[in-house]
Amino acid sequence: MAMWQIATQMRFHRRHFVAALALFVVEVCIALFARDDFIRPYVGDVLVVPLMLHALATVMTVALWRLTIGVWLFAFAVEFAQYCKLVDALGLQDNRLAATVIGTSFSVEDLVAYSVGAGLAYWLGKRVERRPQ
To answer: Backbone phi, then psi, for 29, in 5-degree steps?
Structure first.
């Protein structure tokens, strides 16, 4: 698909924006305040996929199922980068931002959380798109 075709498929979807913003606030609260063994590691990972989906759906006109699969594959790619120790390979192990964004430890539980998040993202996305703007 040519770049101009992608640009012509962009639009602003207010309901997806509100969903993305709400999920972002929840994720920030989890990062700042959750100090447990369930909410921070699992709920945060589940919610990151719907957050990315709604953020992208705010400005892109793409079939929801395609966007869901794309975000899910991206989340798996990031986890695979953790498995390959990408942060260390790039010499960024002392860069807190890079270590946080890319991550430093591979976990099968994260892959499960991303898969649950993809299902949740698709379900939420369908509900958001069914309502008229």
So the answer is: -60, -40
Q: What are the mean pLDDT values of the chain's consecutive 10-residue runs (133 residues total)?
A: 58 91 96 90 93 94 92 95 92 88 89 96 87 60
Residue the block writes with tokens 């305040």: 33
Per the CB < 8 A criterion, the answer to whether 76 and 114 are in contact is: yes
Q: What is the pLDDT, as a whole number, of residue 104?
A: 85
Q: How many CB atoms neighbour CB 67 within 10 A? A: 20
Domain membership of residue 120 as a residue range = 10-75+108-130
| 84: in domain | no
